[in-house]
Amino acid sequence: MNKFYQTLEEDIKCLPHEDYLKAKRFIDNRDIESIYDVINACYKMKLHYIDGKIHDDKWKDVDANEVCMLLTYIITYINDSWRSLEKV
Length: 88
Description:
Structural class: mainly alpha
Oligomer: single chain
Distance between the termini: 24 Å
Helix content: over 70%
Order of helices and strands: HHHH
Number of domains: 1
Largest sheet: none
Shape: globular
Radius of gyration: 14 Å
Low-confidence stretches: none
Strand content: under 5%
């Protein structure tokens, strides 16, 4: 497993359990788009929780900053991948 996926596997522990399991499955399959979708959805749900739009306690202990950093890590990886393809 390369460093990117190893880091992701460690960092997704900040997600709620069900979302962690989904993201872990996508990491195992190297499905970067689906990993992004899960983490992006988690980030949006945490923001809705903070705004009081949802009241599901599974979001209570989720750190919005950690999820945001994880999302940024994935976006950076995707952008870097595209840049390397453009050079070919």
